[in-house]
Amino acid sequence: MKANACVSSLAEVSxxxxxxxxxxxSAYFRRKDANAALLSNFEVFQLLTDLKQQRKESGKNKQSSxxxxxxxxxxxxxxxxxxxxxxxxxxETVRNFLIAMKGHxxxxxxxxxxxxxxxxxxxxxxxxxxxxxxxxxxxQIESLLQTVTSILPGDPEEQQRDxxxxxxxxxxxx
Length: 174
Known about the structure:
By secondary structure, this protein is mainly alpha-helical. Helices cover 70% and strands 0% of the residues.
């Protein structure tokens, strides 16, 4: 029931500044053919971040209960999505990734999964690409991993830890 209240509150949002974007998203989710256009985590993150900034600048204090519900959804979505690889992406990164993916025979949804999750192992690729065992060779999976990790930025702290662990492993083997 809360979801219906949130959707109806989205319909009440005025067309001020960037709030038209939320109407667009609301309309998008009500469409019958929702797979016609997909949004990446980066696009949602960017949209909500811009909207949050504009609301902060407008300084509106009075809000209806529907607006408060919308704010809660925005907050929770931003909280979750800021923990994903999308926070390190840029429009240029996304564009470069999609261009590089043209060489791979993947569906739009599979490309979106790779973009949103930035897999680093073959197992993760197998979970994101339907029937990957039949469709992809080991070399193609390695090529996909190379493309994903070279184009999409990861968590800098995590990458430093991984490289430090790899250095320790090499010195321990020597």
